[in-house]
Amino acid sequence: MAFDYKVKRTEADAKARVDAYVEPRDCFIWFTGNRWGWQSFSETGDTPCAHYVAHQVGLRGSGSVVCAAGYLVRVSDVVSRLGDAIDPKDVCPGDVWARLKGAARSGGGNEPTSHCGMVTAVLRDAAGKVTSVSITHCSSGQRRVAVDDWRRRFGGGGHFYRLPDRERSAETDANLPRLLKGFAFRPPFTPVRTG
Ligand SMILES: [Zn+2]
User: Fold this and answer.
1) What's the CA-to-centroid distance between 86 and ligand 1, angstroms?
2) What is the DSSP string of 41-97?
3) Residue 105's pLDDT band (boundaries 50, 70, 90)?
4) In angstroms, what is the span from residue 70 Cα to ligand 1's centroid?
5) Is 129 in a helix, a strand, or coil?
6) How many other β-carbons are positioned within 10 Å of the β-carbon of residue 27?
7) C-alpha 46 – ligand 1 centre gap (Å)
8) Lowest mean pLDDT segment, chosen from 5-9, 31-35, 122-126, 178-182
9) pLDDT confidence of 4, banded at 50, 70, 90?
10) In angstroms, what is the span from residue 119 Cα to ligand 1's centroid?
11) Could you tell me which residues are beta bridge partners of residue 104?
């Protein structure tokens, strides 16, 4: 389906153009204004990883680019709300992993793209040293919500962040246990705004 910018889109039109693997899917749209109506973020070049994380931890935005339910959709916006990175040796399930395009990598070079996901498993050896970190992320490359090893897939790049107390909500507390049990995301109480 070619995108015809001359046709005003309804909310349903825009929803139908959200890539099937996006989670959550129905709200990955925005209202562009009365002239052209609604548009899917799948058509604007916005990858769905930050939107996935924002819903899981409950980061709504104001004055920035947000989905139809009010959640952040850009990695840089998510990172700026999370504050300083934590030490990788302290990483725990429920933390956020993110990298920003162009940022320096600890092993040299620069991060190739902005990307983020949720930490869903951490293994430590007997001495307490982190031996593996699993990242669950909405992957545009794999076109699915994938679980990947932090070092193998992301070269150990990016940083880990812990949701600050000021950002925690009942929504966070409802979502994270579900995520860590491996359930698919289900918006607990996030009606999609219309109009
Ligand atoms: Zn959304």
Assistant:
1) 26
2) GGGTT--SHHHHHHHHHT-B-SSS-B-TTSBB--HHHHHHHH-SPBPGGG--TT-EE
3) confident
4) 7
5) coil
6) 24
7) 13
8) 5-9
9) low
10) 20
11) 110
